[in-house]
Amino acid sequence: MKKNFAVALLLLVTGIVCAQTQQIQRTQENQTTVRTETSSNDSSLSNLSYRNVTVHKIFDQKEVYIVLYAKNGNGVGQVMIPKSWAKETPSKIQFRLLPKGLNPYMTVVYKDNEFLKVILTMPSPKIGSTWAVTGDYVDIGDSAQAETLVIEY
């Protein structure tokens, strides 16, 4: 009887966790407009917005990061992010530590609907199945000199 109760409780908790994880992923994939409060306590829309996409793999190349990401939930997209963006002021690329229980993801931030910066939320150090290294033989074209990030959702 106690075993049946424990198994039922475990199944219930697992179902709740799965439902919450799916809700988080759906929320991350939707574009969100950030609300800000003005000094007069009036609520207004900010000129900042962002989109989150799940990251499948990042290839570390000499001049760029090659990111494979989930596209519309049923495809894979690829973007190349110049490493030189980290040296710019303000920086156009930022890394943040991935919290436990989440999959790696990329946040693309826009200001007035123009690209502002990209934030990669990844496990650290560069270990695990998400990170890989690729050689200099990969054709990156002029991606290392890109000024903006063009991404298809």
Task: Tag the structure with descriptive keywords.
153 residues; alpha+beta; eight-stranded mixed beta sheet; 1 helix; 42% strand
SS element count, helices:
1
What separation lies between the terminal Cα atoms?
50 Å
Rounded Rg: 19 Å
Number of strands: 8
Task: State the share of residues found in helices, binned by percent.
Answer: 10-25%
Strand content: 35-45%
Low-confidence stretches: 3-24, 26-42
Task: Give the overall silhouette.
Answer: globular
H/E topology pattern: HEEEEEEEE
Structural class: alpha+beta
Name the average pLDDT.
78
Largest sheet: 8 strands, mixed
Structure in words:
The protein is of the alpha+beta class and 153 residues long. It is 18% helix and 42% strand. It has one helix at residues 2-29, and strands spanning 32-37, 43-60, 64-71, 75-82, 93-97, 105-111, 114-122, 131-133. Strands 1, 2, 3, 4, 5, 6, 7 and 8 form an eight-stranded mixed sheet that branches. Residues 3-24 and 26-42 have low confidence and may be disordered.
